[in-house]
Design goal:
Blueprint (H helix, E strand, L loop, with lengths): L1 H10 L1 H6 L1 E5 L2 E4 H5 L3 H30 L13 H10 L1 H5 L5 H5 L5 H24 L5 E3 L16 E5 L2 E4 H7 L1 H35 L3 H9 L6 H13 L7 H26 L3 E3 L18 E3 L4 E7 L4 H16 L3 E7 L6 H15 L3 H10 L12 H11 L3 H8 L2 H17 L6 E4 L2 E4 L4 H8 L19
Length: 480
């Protein structure tokens, strides 16, 4: 009993904050002292962790309730009417016709109608889902046991219960897995803030010790080590000429003189502090959080490459410039390494009918055995402008002929509701994982965001890191 109590106290946020986080030549500095330098920011990050945990736990509870009541589904909202679109535009006339509205929008206000319609339908869908969520909880006992916000900066014990749904626990490891990337970003931000604070404390403590050793005040010591920082006219002129040559003309010479004086003082102070550090023993006792390992779910999505152990799941589209560059880098990677398999999940984080159309045609081409041919076609064409389309009706017929697929099957697939739902699921999964931009990747379980070269992807794939647990694939054929 007492052992359990002591273990609990040792892991409490208060006890954690009192632990030694830094030692400067044997002198301990607690975590609370480090956090005190930027307490408001640390508190905001703790709150962000708690908010993220709450949102993720709500999602886990919803899934548990839906699994127990599969017949309860949110009703599909009616499509937004033309009257609703016109009413929305009238209520925000400044956005469409005012002086700050985009030129193209002022010239053709109706060009924004598809985006307005999408927004209204998304809003109606969110309202329907919220109502369904309220109905879903009726007749069920739900108890939430989220820890304090400060406690969330460390991974929770896997078997700790964070919620009960009808006497069935939701363990902490389910929460950690579902919010892995979200938690990692916030925990790393806390770590980086503490490292900055630790560096500030180290400098102040070392300067204070040296000042006491010399028997002077710290301010006097700083004046002694910085010395005369006067900037002469010749030095200022050389700086102004160098800036002009670099394309950065100086408009205020006196301000430039002040900057050079500050830079000189800062360099001398930094050099002096480094000499003090060299003779001191510095121990930073708090560790950087390890990056998460994310699931690699193929979800019956298009895939290219071999059937080897090295896998990349890429969440991308055919519209954004970094996405298109990444597609070409993936081609380079696949051409040089036959042991890599790349799974293409659709990720359209903002409303974009052009990207949505490309996702549909590539998905349907994949269903009919022509994914790589369709992908090459999309990458050799320039994406159409927003509001336009890749292929008109007659162009789709000739596209099917070029791809060597049945026209009727292609058209049937394009109009299929299932394809749209698959694209929406991919995007929702990417957002739930914590990705915010396309392209994003899960390479052997390691999350990455933004443009990547073939070489950088190869380096990550070849790292000797534990493999992510493979996920089941639903009836997916081999690579094409």
């Amino acid at each position: 009993m007492w052992i359990v109590l002591l273990m609990f106290l040792a892991m409490s946020p208060a006890a954690f904050a009192d632990q030694a986080a830094l030692r400067i030549s044997g002198e301990s500095v607690s975590l609370s002292e480090i956090d005190a330098l930027s307490r408001p920011k640390i508190d905001r990050l703790h709150k962000a962790l708690a908010d993220q945990a709450g949102r993720t736990l709500d999602r886990l509870i919803d899934r548990r309730l839906r699994a127990s009541s599969p017949e309860t589904k949110p009703s599909s909202p009616e499509p937004a009417t033309n009257e609703a679109v016109r009413a929305f535009r009238s209520s925000r006339a400044e956005d469409f016709e005012g002086p700050f509205a985009p030129v193209e929008t002022r010239r053709n206000p109706s060009a924004e109608d598809p985006a307005i319609r999408h927004y209204l339908e998304q809003k109606a869908r969110a309202t329907a889902e919220a109502e369904a969520r309220r109905d879903l909880g009726k007749g069920h006992a739900v108890k939430i046991l989220l820890p304090e916000s400060g406690e969330l900066e460390q991974p929770l014990p896997p078997q700790r219960t964070v919620a009960w749904v009808d006497d069935v626990p939701i363990p902490a490891d389910a929460l950690e897995q579902a919010a892995a990337l979200h938690f990692y970003r916030l925990r790393k931000e806390i770590h980086l803030e503490r490292r900055r604070n630790a560096e500030t404390l180290i400098e102040h403590r070392l300067l204070g010790r040296e000042a006491r050793r010399r028997g002077v005040a710290a301010e006097v010591l700083l004046k002694q080590i910085t010395g005369d920082t006067t900037v002469g006219d010749e030095e200022l002129h050389a700086f102004i000429e160098a800036e002009r040559a670099a394309g950065r003309p100086v408009s205020d010479p006196e301000r430039a003189r002040q900057y050079l004086s500050f830079r000189k003082a800062h360099a001398r102070r930094t050099t002096f502090v480094e000499s003090l550090r060299a003779s001191a023993r510095i121990e930073i006792l708090f560790e950087e959080p390890p990056p998460p390992r994310l699931p690699m779910t193929e979800a019956n999505a298009p895939a290219l490459g071999g059937a080897g152990e090295l896998r990349i799941v890429v969440y991308t589209n055919y519209r954004c410039a970094p996405c298109r560059q990444t597609h070409r880098e993936i081609d380079r990677l696949l051409a040089t390494d036959g042991n890599v398999r790349v799974i293409f999940r659709d990720f359209i984080p903002v409303y974009d009918p052009v990207a949505g159309e490309a996702a549909r045609v590539s998905r349907c081409a994949d269903r009919l055995g022509a994914f790589q041919r369709m992908r090459s076609e999309l990458l050799t064409r320039n994406p159409p402008a927003f509001g336009e389309v890749w292929y008109e009706g007659h162009a789709l017929s000739s596209l099917a002929a070029r791809l060597g697929i049945d026209r009727a099957d292609f058209f049937q697939c394009l109009s299929s509701r299932e394809i749209g739902e698959a694209i929406a699921r991919d995007t929702a999964e990417a957002l739930e994982l914590g990705f915010e931009e396309a392209p994003s990747f899960v390479a052997q379980g390691i999350p990455l965001s933004g443009f990547r070269t073939a070489e950088s992807l190869t380096e990550i794939l070849r790292r000797r890191t534990p493999r992510a647990r493979p996920q089941p694939v639903e009836g997916k054929a081999g690579p094409r």
